[in-house]
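User: I've been trying to design a sequence by hand for this structure and keep getting stuck. Would you show me what you'd pick, starting by listing the structure so we're on the same page?

Assistant: Good idea, let's start from the same input. This is the structure you sent:
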């Protein structure tokens, strides 16, 4: 028989988590501030706990997913004193600092703590490909890894540091937003001459495939070795090209902030002696802006 699980927080995500545990055959106890959100889950076999304390007593694995870390702490604190041997798996999104502070708080309360970051939307919960990052004590994660596979088949343990899941989360989020923003800036430039994005798309996609993506492993090596070879395209030369992008953005009446930012960082790297290196040298500026 499968291990019992408690799910606290039945918003869009918490409900999906509870459904996946039920579908995998885990006896599942649920609690939500607005109790009616448990109605459907009870119909599917979940047990509705009347209080947080009851929910925390149902089993030792407590999965919590609410709006933010403050709400999460308020909910657990409302019980006064939690039962011994509880393991909190906190899947609420936040920052690495939130996660570290909450791990320290959980330790004071005598609870084991695993922090997690969900890299999926609610409809993706319960599938083999779904990724959740986890961090915290290895033996605690190992003890519950099988149960947690019911919500995310590709769940991945990153190590003991509880801030790592949130750090990977925001790092992937940043990659997505900055890449999409780059595409949107290019689309805005073309739109200034009434070129539809669809006309530009084939070139953008080929550019991603043959130029942008293949270079990323090289950049990763450069970051890890601290050496930024120019490959016949120095930062000094590329910075002049970025000036054209800034100038073109201004004259086309498009927001120039994005290329201005890139130009400023490249110039900082040049001032630090990286003119003869490759683009990768901007890493030195981004990771240590105070040293300018
Ligand atoms: P919802 O807005 O659907 O649900 C929010 C939940 O938090 C509800 O259960 C709500 O209770 C509860 N809540 C909020 N404030 C309090 C409080 N002060 N005390 C008690 N309970 C509170 O959000 P989601 O379920 O979508 O998101 C939950 C977490 O999952 C967030 O951290 C989000 O970033 C993360 N996440 C969500 C994704 C998504 O696509 N939805 C993707 C990846 C992560 P009530 O019903 O009573 O209002």
């Amino acid at each position: 028989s499968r291990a019992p699980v408690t799910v606290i927080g039945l918003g869009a995500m918490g409900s999906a988590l509870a459904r996946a545990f039920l579908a995998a055959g885990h006896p599942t106890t649920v609690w939500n501030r607005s109790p009616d959100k448990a109605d459907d889950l009870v119909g599917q076999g979940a047990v509705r706990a009347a209080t947080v304390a009851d929910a925390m007593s149902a089993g030792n694995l407590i999965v919590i997913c609410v709006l933010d870390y403050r709400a999460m702490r308020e909910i657990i604190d409302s019980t006064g004193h939690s039962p011994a041997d509880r393991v909190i798996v906190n899947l609420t999104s936040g920052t690495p600092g939130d996660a570290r502070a909450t791990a320290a708080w959980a330790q004071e309360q005598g609870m084991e703590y695993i922090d997690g970051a969900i890299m999926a939307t609610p409809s993706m919960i319960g599938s083999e490909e779904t990724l959740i990052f986890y961090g915290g004590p290895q033996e605690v994660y190992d003890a519950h890894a099988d149960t947690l596979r019911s919500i995310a088949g590709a769940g991945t343990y990153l190590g003991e540091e509880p801030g790592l899941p949130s750090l990977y989360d925001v790092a992937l989020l940043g990659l997505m937003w900055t890449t999409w923003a780059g595409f949107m800036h290019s689309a805005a430039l073309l739109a200034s001459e009434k070129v539809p994005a669809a006309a530009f798309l084939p070139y953008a996609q080929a550019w991603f495939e043959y130029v942008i993506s293949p270079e990323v492993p090289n950049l990763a090596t450069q970051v890890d070795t601290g050496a930024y070879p120019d490959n016949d395209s120095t930062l000094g030369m590329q910075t002049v090209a970025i000036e054209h992008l800034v100038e073109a953005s201004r004259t086309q009446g498009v927001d120039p902030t994005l290329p201005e930012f890139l130009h400023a960082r490249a110039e900082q790297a040049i001032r630090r002696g990286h003119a003869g290196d490759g683009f990768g040298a901007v890493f030195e500026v981004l990771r240590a802006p105070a040293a300018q």
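That's my pick for every position. To get oriented when you compare it with your attempt: The chain has a mean pLDDT of 96. The radius of gyration is 24 Å.
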